[in-house]
Specification:
Distance between the termini: 29 Å
Largest sheet: 12 strands, mixed
Low-confidence stretches: none
Strand content: 15-25%
Radius of gyration: 20 Å
Shape: globular
Order of helices and strands: EEEEHHEHHHEHEHEEHEHEHEHHEEEEE
Helix content: 25-40%
Number of strands: 17
């Protein structure tokens, strides 16, 4: 193959888990402007936190998986479910999968939290009864390893842990691997399940979590009175393959990945700057050979924090200043899935083609006055075709932009 030749990369399968339920079809309320965010009390210990969260209230469906999946940490269960659904939708032969790329920020948070709780609060029991499976269930690589084990894959399995950009990086790197001819098929995604007392306390200490106002109202991303992010949980997975490979097996193509760019913000771990975000979007558009005014929709990273949204608003204003591009953040519906956010939001963008509507920003009563772009705050009918861009701008400075075109 000519070293300058770049193969086209398409999406042929998707799987998802969110606070709305197990499966891609359960995401339908997002497009109607619904939210899964509720007040939750975490645990029965004195001083237990009561927080806004988008939490999945049901357990892993029974009768589908074996004991090793049922005994895994929640994050691994979600990962395997989403991968199983994506592979089933794609109808891909698993022996053709040449790469697994997976993103997560925390790994098995529930397992680690349980271990600490047993150790610190076990009454009159100095042994603590910590499970010997704590390490393999809690390690960051557990969900990727679980996916590969369930599907009996012996290909390279990569875990990316870049905070909120983890699964977006997984998608982008797999896109490059296929484009460059290193593999024909990749299974990529991410999972996160960190709504547990210890992790929540850490986020509370950072001062980053949203709080309802005196009237019990919560303000979402891009609202003028926003005051923090809302934790969510879930997983997403997509099957990427070269267009040639997909066409040869008569696969149903959902979308095409056109471009990917990653930049780093070296200035501060938690306070984002505009220039690296602008550069990520511009580089992704250039890589995709797409102009800003050709982008129909942007799924913004916007989480609802004062500083984070302010930075992205300015970056979006600059990149799309002369465009009629629609913009929304879906975190007001699903919560912030951290390491799984990038892939779940990509799936929502692709699913817009299937349901005929873009997903609006939920929880916006008064849009931020500095917004110059077309903010989508109500369900909008659309055929969902055309080009979309999705942003994942993470703590630590990793900024990722991905560009896709939904298939006609």
């Amino acid at each position: 193959m000519d070293k300058h030749y770049k193969r086209r990369v398409v999406v042929t399968g998707m799987g998802a888990v969110s606070a709305f339920g197990w499966g891609v079809d359960e995401l339908a309320p997002v497009f109607r402007g619904a939210t899964a965010i509720r007040l939750h009390r975490l645990g029965d210990l004195p001083g237990a936190s009561e927080i806004l969260a988008a939490r999945l209230e049901t357990d892993l469906p029974t009768g589908v998986f074996d004991r090793r999946v049922e005994d895994a940490d929640r994050v691994t269960q979600m990962a395997i479910y989403s991968a199983h659904e994506a592979v089933t939708m794609s109808d891909i032969a698993t022996d053709t999968i040449g790469l697994v790329g997976w993103g997560t920020g925390y790994g098995g948070a529930a397992t680690m939290d349980e271990a600490y709780t047993r150790w610190l609060f076990a009454k009159h029991d100095l042994t603590g009864k910590v499970s010997p499976l704590t390490v393999p269930k809690a390690m960051t690589h557990a969900s990727a390893a679980g996916v590969a084990g369930w599907l009996n894959l012996s290909c390279p399995v990569m875990t990316y842990s870049c905070a909120c950009a983890s699964s977006a990086v997984a998608i982008g790197e797999a896109y490059l691997a296929i484009q460059q001819g290193r593999c024909d098929v990749a299974l990529v995604g991410g999972a996160e399940a960190l709504i547990v007392p210890g992790v929540v306390r850490a986020w509370e200490a950072l001062g980053a979590l949203a709080k309802p106002d005196e009237n019990g109202l919560w303000r979402g991303p891009f609202d003028a009175l926003r005051n923090g992010l809302v934790l969510g949980e879930g997983a997403g997975c997509i099957v990427l393959e070269s267009k040639t490979h997909a066409t040869r097996r008569s696969a149903h193509i959902l979308a095409e990945c056109l471009g990917y760019a990653q930049t780093n913000d070296p200035n501060c771990l938690t306070l984002p700057h505009i220039a690296p975000q602008v550069k990520a979007m511009q580089m992704a558009l250039q890589n995709a050979d797409v102009l800003a005014d050709e982008v129909a929709y942007v799924n913004a990273h916007a989480t609802g924090t004062r500083a984070g949204d302010t930075s992205e608003i300015k970056a979006l204003n600059e990149v799309f200043e002369d465009a009629s591009t629609l913009v929304s953040s879906t975190k007001g519906a699903t919560g912030h899935l951290m390491g799984a956010a990038g892939v779940l939001e990509t799936i929502l963008c692709i699913e817009a083609r299937q349901v005929g509507a873009y997903s609006p920003s939920v929880g916006v009563s008064e849009p931020d006055a500095s917004i110059d772009f077309a903010l989508l705050t109500n369900p909008t009918q659309s055929n969902g075709t055309g080009v979309f861009l999705t942003n994942s701008f993470a703590f630590g400075g990793t900024n990722v932009s991905l560009v896709f075109r939904n298939h006609d």
